[in-house]
What we know:
Helix content: 40-55%
Strand content: 5-15%
Structural class: alpha/beta
Largest sheet: 3 strands, parallel
Amino acid sequence: MPTPAVREAYGRRLAEYVDRFGSIDATAAPDRALVGAWARDRGGPVLDVGCGPGQWTAWLHAAGVDVEGVDPVEDFVAGAGLRHPGVRFRVGRAAGCCSGSSRGSRSSRSSTP
């Protein structure tokens, strides 16, 4: 789990992060095609670890993928749930979230504010 200082830093810059990266339109079409093809080929549920504002999770959900967004920053999860009703989000972290059956992963872009 991130340190409290990291969570607080993301919380302070949450609006800026969402404005810049919170829309799927901020992603490149080839990236959407790659991630979409990967998710459809998985044949099972997808866990979007580090989902941030939830744009990828919501996009995959709209495409029919069984997906859940997970982020260690509570404010991101709360905002993602408000922006994307009906899509599953929860507070969590990568360590210990998978049963070991994962055949791949998609990591969202991350940066430290």
